[in-house]
């Protein structure tokens, strides 16, 4: 009985130590700035890094000379019929979280387990915005055409396409509003590569402020606070 108690105690200690090391590593590495190269190009494109308090989105112009996102992610896939949007929010994450957990109170142990272990499917959440307001959870940043092309390429590489090379829309009633839709995505979500890691990776590829490694939104946002 005593030996069994010791085994359980060691397991509990190991779990607590693992969680602490994970938290500390994320806390430190997400605040250390990843390497960036300076660019002499004109920074005329406005983008935003937006968080809902947990999850981050890239918020980009719906249309410019480089891309029209409404062609790749048709507005007709939204519940609403409005087409007067200026920005598009793009986020990546675990499909089960997106579709089955609208609020934290809806989180099931099975959903959390699948997400943490990386054995589930992933999705892109596409949200159209009429305007964007800066706040403690939303920061504006100016970039050049090369940086923007890197963001475009990264998003496109995360999309799961059908035989006609079109993004696969997910038929669901789990949309958050009349201006969003979900699409099948590539990649595996896990405790080491979360929705925010995806955003952080996109920012690094685009030579924008980012942490070395981030799984939480606060580390990413820390690089944009004035």
What does this protein structure show overall?
This protein is an alpha+beta fold and 226 residues long. The chain is built from seven helices and six strands, in the order H-E-E-H-E-H-H-E-E-H-E-H-H. It has helices at 2-29, 69-72, 95-100, 109-117, 145-157, 195-205, 217-221; strands spanning 45-51, 56-61, 87-94, 122-129, 138-143, 180-185. A six-stranded antiparallel β-sheet has the order 5-1-2-3-4-6. A hairpin with a 4-residue loop joins strand 1 (45-51) and strand 2 (56-61). The chain is globular and about 70 Å long.
* Low-pLDDT stretches: none
Distance between the first and last residues' Cα? 57 Å
Q: Count of helical segments? A: 7
Order of helices and strands: HEEHEHHEEHEHH
Task: Report the structural category.
Answer: alpha+beta
- The total beta strand count reads 6
Short description:
By secondary structure, the chain is α+β, with helices and mostly antiparallel strands.
Layout of secondary structure:
Blueprint: H1 2-29, E1 45-51, E2 56-61, H2 69-72, E3 87-94, H3 95-100, H4 109-117, E4 122-129, E5 138-143, H5 145-157, E6 180-185, H6 195-205, H7 217-221
Antiparallel strand pairs: 1-2, 1-5, 2-3, 3-4, 4-6
What features would you highlight for this structure?
six-stranded antiparallel sheet; single chain; globular; 226 residues; 7 helices; alpha+beta
